[in-house]
Amino acid sequence: MPYLRDVRPTKSELLVLRTRLQIAKRARKTLQMKLDGLIMEVTRLAPEVKAEYDLLMARYRRVRHLLAPAYMIEGMLNVTIAAYSVESKTEIELTEKNLFGIRVPVISGTNVRTDLMERGYGLLGTSLVIDDLADAYEKLVDAIIAYAGNAAALNHLLREIERITRRVKALENVVIPSLETSIATIASSREEIEREEQSRLFHIKKKRE
Amino acid sequence: MHHYLVTPSSYRYICTRIGLRKKSLITPEQYNRLLNMELSQLLRFIGESGYDEEVHTLSSAFSEIERIEQALTRNLANTYRNILSIAPGALHEMAERYFTRYDIENIMLILRGCQFQIPPERIRAVLIPAGVLTPAQLDHLLILRTIREISEHLSSWPYAGVVSRVISEGYRRGLFASLENELYLQYYENLIADARFGIRGGDVILPHLRFEIDIQNIRNVFRLRAGSRMADITPYMIPGGYLTPEDFQRLYTVSDREAFVSELSRAGIISILTEALRNLRCDASICETDAADVVWRRWAARKTPLYTVMLAVNTMLLHHLDGLARRHPFSVLPIISYMEHKRYEVANLRAIARGKQFGVSPDFIRQHLVM
After folding, report:
1. Is this complex scored with an ipTM above 0.90?
2. What pLDDT does residue A4 have?
């Protein structure tokens, strides 16, 4: 399907199309470079995210593994009370950074890991398993924050790669070929017109003679 | 000075009665059978044993696990109150002072429940009214709206001074932790003073108390090492054990294996841990060097000791208490021994029920039983 329709075979139109073609080629080259850069960034980031995901899952399994003994030793409400007693609230900060012109989120947390004495429950009224469980949950939250930031950045990059790839493909397979076709059509039309004009002039000249 | 040797007949009567009750507790063989039961079978078992009244009064609207847990807690509270109601004179007094620890637990639950807006019925379900405060008093505290009001209504409680002093300025971060620590420190101080000079025949409880304090301190020094960076831990160590807070402070700063092992051996901790590990792993060949290795690895990595090891230490504490109770059959010790056995029976049944709920293996559950 031609990209442009109803193109008038004029000189000015031809110049416009040639300019457009140049811009399209330049845009394709720039986007291709950006795409390469993004792919390199994703290649660098993906193993990091995978490692963070593995760590997150390992910590989640550790929490699940500790939850059963905590309920077995302390009972449901004592675990709940210990959880309610925690007074240091984790704060999540969300900022953005620029990566190849794309704004990707940066997630960081403060107050994630706390000192035993600052958690809020008393040392003398609780047991070891509560410490272990609290510690495991803190580590899990830490891993979630680290994973969430990089995974969100990776998702943004992948979406951007998909979008740019679509644009590069469109330029490569639709815009540039149709511009080239249109330019070729105009060029051939103009040649045909020139030939007709030449032939007409030739016949007029012949009649005059 | 052993006044309990001149025993009135009521002492002999109550101690014999307690001894008989102790025999009716669940035996290790029965635990082995329970480990292979389903949750519904476990509920039926406890409904047919000493917990029938509590199981049957609970609504069937609760899930099986909730019914079991609530029945166990209610039964424990009823048992404690029953024992306290039949214990005469100094026995009653000493047992009541000893079980003031449940008052502390209850008050902390009520204060936290009030501050964090936990429904009172949920808190009521786990209260164990075994100390000085009666169930009616605890119920009254549960309906109060602020921690200051609760503090004001505690004026008759022996530890009211500590509560009102700590929460006089209202709620702030770290308030409950410091209050809880202060209450327990005061509790042990009062109990030792009562056992030494306050109550006739109270001195027999001292060896058990000292052992218990040491175990608590060992546990806490590991916890502080694993989870805290504070330099001075003496305010969190309970005085009155065989080891002083200064001994634990010295141990806390040790980072060399040789020094660590020698410090533990000198304090007699290695022998306790060796025995606990032997019991836990059912392996008599475990020697002190093995135990020292296990403990050192956790210490060097700044980790808490395995909670299963600490449960095995609790078993030793219970056996130590049993030994003392046999040596002093007509003192407060048989009562405390029975109550501790009952507490662990409830804890064991809860562990089995929760273990079944989480679908863990019987062997895994067995490691969490104190028997």
Report:
1. no
2. 58
